[in-house]
Amino acid sequence: MEARGNDDLSLPKATVQKIITEILPTSAGLSFARDARDLLIECCVEFITLISSEANEIAEKEAKKTIACEHVTKALEDLGFQEYVQDVLGVANEHKEHQRSREKKQSKMEQSGLTEEELLRQQEELFGAARVKYNQGPADAAT
């Protein structure tokens, strides 16, 4: 394994700590040392680098400019991590479904059923009412 050229590569410590905490059974009374967490982060970064480098080589051999899911799964298989492929595909499908559902959500403007001009007119009316109320002052506004 060659040395990383960029030592700035890392994962957020708080996120990794949260994952560790979720995995460790609370009943066991186990804790995870900071240096062990830091080592785990380094291992994760190295694993990501290894997989992405292999996926990049596969994409380049296919004359592709974008690394796709199939390049990542092929990289996992080529590097001997075939047991992860089904989980990776499952997570990829979940992500695609989540993205589709996000695209279907309408904005508040679309949900209102009003045209942009009607919404702008309503906004101006609200600003006008607020301006009048502000200019009346606190004593006048109470009456």
Structure description:
Helix 3 packs antiparallel against helix 4. The termini are far apart. The protein has 6 helices and no strands. With 143 residues, it is mainly alpha-helical. The mean pLDDT is 86.
Provide the descriptors you would attach to this structure in a database record:
single chain; 6 helices; 143 residues; mainly alpha; 0% strand
Q: Which blocks of ≥5 consecutive residues have pLDDT under 50?
A: none
What is the helix/strand order? HHHHHH
- Please report which band the strand proportion falls in: under 5%, 5-15%, 15-25%, 25-35%, 35-45% or over 45%: under 5%
**What is the approximate shape?**
elongated
In short:
The protein is 71% helix and 0% strand.
Task: Give the arrangement of secondary structure elements.
Elements: H1 13-23, H2 34-61, H3 69-78, H4 85-104, H5 108-112, H6 116-142
Helix pairs in contact: 2-3, 3-4
